[in-house]
Amino acid sequence: MSDPDNKKPKRSFLLQSKLAWSFFGVTFAIIGFLWLSNAYFAFTGELPFDFLNISMNEPTLLDQDQVSVAQQDRGPIGDSFGVINSLFSGLAILGLVYAILLQRQELHLVKDERDDTRKILNNQQSALDSQNRLTKKQAFETTFFNLLTLITSSRAGICLPTTHHELKGEPALALIAENVVNNFRKKGSINYRETATYRTTTAHINLFISAALTLEEYEPYFKPEESVHLGILMNAISPSEQILMAFEAYSPDNFLMLRVVDDFGFINEPKSPVLTEVLQKLRE
Predict the structure, then answer these.
(1) Model-level pTM?
(2) Residues 151 and 278 in one domain
């Protein structure tokens, strides 16, 4: 992008040309002299050509020193100066044409300056849009990766007491998922949101939903197959978390989670054969 400060100013030829100004100056000087000559003749009946050492040889009109004309002859001779009026009329037209050319040139200059201003504003708007997109992307990535960090810490904080010791993290989630699946197989159906396990894991599972909604807000025309961030999120889901997410999504009246899980394909590619079995029964 060119720097507007280094741009040479556009100049009018008619206003800046010394030749044009010289021509108009000489023309107006000649006109002024002719007008003064005409006025001098009208009041005195004499032609002031002796100032220019011009002699005229007509015996009836001029003598050796000065031109003297009778009162009755001034009219016809004065009419001979009608050419000056024609000259003035022509110059008036020239002046009008000159004014039109100047105005046309100024309008072109104004148009060019307006176009330059529009280009500068468009460039500024483009730069501002780029900055806004960059800021939005930085804010999204900060939120998204903070949620991934929170998912990791939440997973590590899940505890499940057993007979011999207490399980933490992914082993605890794996045992919780195994117990839920066994209970589901025995009863044939289960409302996961009414179980004690739900209260233990729902906050953790909903972190994945929050990350998905953040991604959806950042990418209004979301395409799962083109999203790098979705791939990162999918890799963060463990097989046991997939199972628990499926039970929670297919619980009664949990339409928001079911919609997000389906749109983002969180359970479309089961990471364990147990999830494939569970999904067949849950979708019946």
Answers:
(1) 0.57
(2) yes
Q: Give the closest residue to 156 by CA, choosing from 178, 173, 177.
A: 173
For residues 91 and 29, the answer to whether their CB atoms sit within 8 Å is no
Average per-residue pLDDT for the chain:
77
Which one of 99, 132, 165 terminates a domain? 132
Judgement on whether residues 127 and 215 belong to the same structural domain of the protein: no
- DSSP states of 22-43: HHHHHHHHHHHHHHHHHHHHHH
Read off the tokens for 12: 């009018």
Residue-range definition of the domain harbouring residue 84: 12-132
Condensed to tens digits (0 to 9), the pLDDT of residues 35-65 reads 777 667 666 666 665 544 444 444 444 444 4
Span of 54-58, 118-122, 188-192 with lowest mean pLDDT: 54-58
What are φ and ψ of residue 191, in 5° steps?
A: -100, 95
Phi first, then psi: give them for residue 67, nearest 5 degrees: -85, 125
Question: Rounded CA gap, 27 and 102, in Å?
Answer: 19
